[in-house]
Amino acid sequence: MGCAGSRDKRDAKKIRKPKPWKHSEPITRVQLTRMRDEFWDTAPHYGGRKEIWDALRAAAEADTTLAQAIVESAGVIVQNPDLTVCYDERGAKYELPKYVLSEPANLIRDS
Fold first, then answer.
1. What are 87's strand-pairing partners?
2. Distance CA 96, CA 8 (A)
3. 41, 81 in Cβ contact below 8 A?
4. What DSSP string runs through 32-75?
5. pTM value?
6. What is the Cα–Cα distance from 61 to 55, expressed in whole angstroms?
7. Percent of the chain's residues with pLDDT above 70
8. Mean pLDDT of 4-25
9. Which residues on neighbouring strands pair with residue 108, listed in sequence order?
10. Residue 103: which residues within 8 A CB-CB, separation 6 or more?
11. For residue range 27-36, what is the model confidence (pLDDT) as tens digits?
12. Distance separating alpha carbons of residues 56 and 4, to the nearest angstrom
C-alpha cells in the first residue's frame, strides 16, 4: 500500500527560472520593478487566495531552492516548472508573467 503523501513528492516539479526572454523593448531595472509591483498589487483581485499570491511572490523573489520549499509548504501545485502556471489545492489557477520571475535579456544595465 502506498502512503498518502507519496503523490505530492512524485508530482512536485523541480522549479527553475524561465528560459531567457526579451521584453518588447529594452527596459530599465526601475521600470521592471514598477511592472512587478503593479502585477503583485493587482493579481489578488483576479481571483485566488491572497496567501497563495503572497507565497508565489516570495517564491518568485527567492532562489530556486527556497522557491521550491515555499511553494511546497504553501500547498501550491506547480503546473509549469518556471512557475508561470500554478494552482492551489482548490483548483484556482495562478498565472505569473515571466517579468516577475526573471530579468529580460534586454534589461538596460545602469552604467
1. 77, 93
2. 22
3. no
4. HHHHHHHHHHHGGGGSS-HHHHHHHHHHHTS-HHHHHHHHHHHT
5. 0.85
6. 10
7. 88
8. 72
9. 28
10. 32
11. 999 999 999 9
12. 25
Place of cell 518588447: 24
Pairing label, strands 27-28, 107-108: parallel
Contacts of 102 (CB under 8 A, 6+ apart): 17, 18, 21
pLDDT above 90 for 6 = no
Grid cell for residue 6: 507519496
Q: Which three cell numbers stand for residue 18?
A: 524561465
Cβ(99)–Cβ(32) below 8 Å: yes
Q: Which amino acid is at 93?
A: K
Q: CA separation (Å) from 5 to 8, 9, 66, 77, 98?
A: 6, 7, 21, 14, 31
